[in-house]
Amino acid sequence: MSTDNSAQDLTVRDGASLPDRFENPGLPPHQQRMADVDPAASKRAERQVVALFAISVIGTIGFLVAYFALRPGESVESMRLSNVALGLSLFLAMFGIGAAAVHWAKTIMSDHEQQEARHPQRSDAEVRAGAVETLRIGAQESGVGRRGVLKGAVVSAVALVPLTFAVPLIGQVGGDWNVSKFRHTLWERGRRLVRDPSGEPIKASEVTIGSVYHVIPDGLREADHWIEEKAKAVVLMVRLDPRDLKESEERAGWSYDGIVAYSKICTHVGCPVALYEQQTHHLLCPCHQSTFDMADGARVVFGPASRPLPQLPITVDDEGYLVAQSDFTEPIGPSYWERLK
User: Fold this and answer.
1) What digits encode the pLDDT tens for the residues 3-45?
2) pTM of the entire structure?
3) Residue 276 and residue 202: Cα distance in Å, rounded?
4) Domain named Rieske: which ranges (predicted)?
5) Helix, strand, coil percentages for the chain (3-state, nearest 5)
6) How many Cβ atoms sit within 10 Å of the Cβ of residue 102?
7) Going by CATH, does the domain composed of 180-324 fall within 2.102.10.10?
8) Number of C-alpha atoms within 13 angstroms, CB side, residue 75?
């Protein structure tokens, strides 16, 4: 219901009187910036924007140099150097453009508030011509036309920065797309489980209930492309109370006295899973929180992963050291186009 009021119409809602409409308060007074009133400040701001675009150009060039000149080799140090150089130069390329655009908008471009009445989606010819004229005026006020150095910096940075994405993509053309490599790892019958990274073999009698081992295949360092092989073969091994272990019939012989071993490569996007919760036997992936039950075939109990972690069948040799019975019986890691599940 409504009631009369000498100042304005009021609407009674939930016992309170509210106005039917609010008056437009209008725009606050425009505040002049330093660059608007001081030519020296305007020129200084222009130089700062040019410098930021130059940083982007330098970053892009540095990325290309790092991509071609710092190819990672077999050593961890070379991979670290390559990744740091690529990451830092890519950051400079992206940051330079972003910071320059923000600083340009805040210090050089026109900041006068504009109001425009709503109208049908298709404007008439006169309005469309007015919009074109407004854009022309905006381009003039932004200072692009009369600032040649700034214009060149913008064009250079925007033209070069796509190379940081295009060059790596083009570099993969004709590369090795043999995904069958993911079906096999260095694990084989009789290969010992050793600690990562020391390479110390593991006796089953020394593994206590609740302990966790990061495991790699024995002799990994002698393999060709051992870094790539390690990325596929890394394993997390845990000893559980045999009474807590739930094993399907086909996997009844894959563990040894409560000791189970599973691939560390998450089946979601391939992050290393390594956060083990002893009380619940849950293994957590730190990237997207996929959680696997180590006592129940590493099945997924939470998160985006759609499949359990592949299990490595293990036993002991004549000396009591833990060894693999075979390779993984399924491909490790996330799905790919030749994998059905």
Assistant:
1) 444 445 556 666 667 777 777 777 778 888 888 888 898 899 9
2) 0.57
3) 19
4) 232-323
5) 40, 15, 45
6) 12
7) yes
8) 5
